[in-house]
Design a protein that fits this description.
Blueprint lengths: L1 E3 L2 E8 L3 H8 L5 H4 L5 E5 L10 E8 L1 E13 L3 E8 L1 H7 L4 E9 L2 E9 L7 H4 L2 H23 L2
Length: 157
């Protein structure tokens, strides 16, 4: 785990090939199966498998329901995928860009090293809240759970 400024990273070696992990990450309809935070409910207007530049929505719930809009901003098949989210409609225009979620996959002995990164360096407005220890600790714990969930989903496939 690396912790630096506006970026949190966790990693885990998952006993599965990069292609299997990437297929799960590139299918927004499966994100609720792996989400460690419990906030992801379902994909909206999402392709079955995203590619660079694709957009998809996500129904979320943290206390109250809300939606995010996501754009795939990095895509290297079976190696790296990232999307940046923002709030819907006028709120998104006012708040600006959201955090970037990035997954980097590296083949290693015993499987694939998966690095998940939460990068909120582009976030404006409420960034001080994201820097609070509780927010960062909650996010880090959810990310670790996400990587655990990826392993469990693939093991049961």
């Amino acid at each position: 785990m690396t912790r630096s400024g506006d970026v949190e990273t966790v990693e885990r070696t998952i006993p599965a090939p990069p292609a299997a992990i990437f297929a799960l990450l590139a299918d927004p309809s499966r994100h609720h199966d792996i989400d460690g935070s419990g906030t992801v409910k379902e994909a909206k207007n999402a392709p079955e498998r995203v590619k660079l530049g694709d957009k998809f929505g996500m129904a979320m719930k943290r206390g109250v329901p809300y939606s995010t809009h996501n754009v795939v901003i990095e895509f290297d098949d079976n190696r790296r995928i990232a999307w940046q989210h923002s709030a819907a409609g006028a709120i998104g225009t006012v708040v600006g860009p959201g955090a970037i979620w990035r997954y980097e996959l590296e083949p290693v002995d015993g499987g694939t090293k998966v690095c998940e990164t939460w990068d909120f360096s582009a976030v404006r407005g409420f960034k001080p809240l994201l820097r609070l220890a509780r927010s960062r600790n909650d996010t880090r714990a959810a990310m670790e759970k996400t990587l655990e969930n990826i392993e469990k989903v693939l093991a049961s496939s």
